[in-house]
Amino acid sequence: MQTELWNDAAGGFHPVSAPDFLPEARLKEVQLRRLRAVVARAYDQVPLFRQRLEKRGLTPDDIRGLADIAKLPFTVKTDLRDTYPFGLFASPMGDVVRLHASSGTTGKPIVVAYTREDVEVWSEVMARTFAACGLHRGDILQNAFGYGLFTGGLGAHYGAEALGATVIPVSGGNTDRQITVLRDFGVSALCCTPSYFVHLIERAKEIGVDLRDLPVRVGVFGAEPWSDGMRAHIEAGAGIKAYDIYGLSEIIGPGVSGECMARPACTCKRTTSWSSASTPTPWNPRWRGNPANWSSPP
Asked: Considering the entire predicted model, what is its pTM?
């Protein structure tokens, strides 16, 4: 029998969100502990990373504070292609339970691996992402991200299930069926690319369905850039609140950052990722003259 839980009511606080409200001092403790752990693991298990640290005269013991992240070398996309397919894995294949990969349209695909623990972390950060958008147990989420080697579909799927929502794994495409499911299944939230949702709005109008009359109230959109104008068009055309999420396979997939109900800015999941743009600002010691450089160690 289903019993009353802490996140039954809309707007209730879900404990999965607790890491997003850590006091700053406690957060920094967690970040430093995890930074040192991941540097030590990469040093021990990934030859390329170890070689680059040694070239700088560094060992994991030199990472004593968060500011020491500036000492670490960058890993760039070409590294992932040069070591294709498994050269940057830090776990033996016997511990890997899933592989994802990019399309490879610009060269060799980027291959990423997940241990069981990685999948659990991924589910947690996506559950936090959905909770920040106001979703909860009892919501019905139509997942129109693609399933397959692309990380979007499964990342959203497991995160919504971890939150306690009901997931409809409809995947992408077949627009008329998408509209039928939205209309008939009591869907309260949907996730897909923003451009595809614009297409859904247009097609729904063509077949006489007004999405504003349906119970769907939240759209979670990602996997491509979109503008404030597109957000306004989506919200007006469907009568929903539209939220942006961000991720990349090289880190974990969707769940790296996302907007919350306060909007409009994506907030990084700071207990699992630390992102800083390498731009010439007084607070950023990592500037190296290239604004395309990013650092996001877990």
From this structure: 0.88
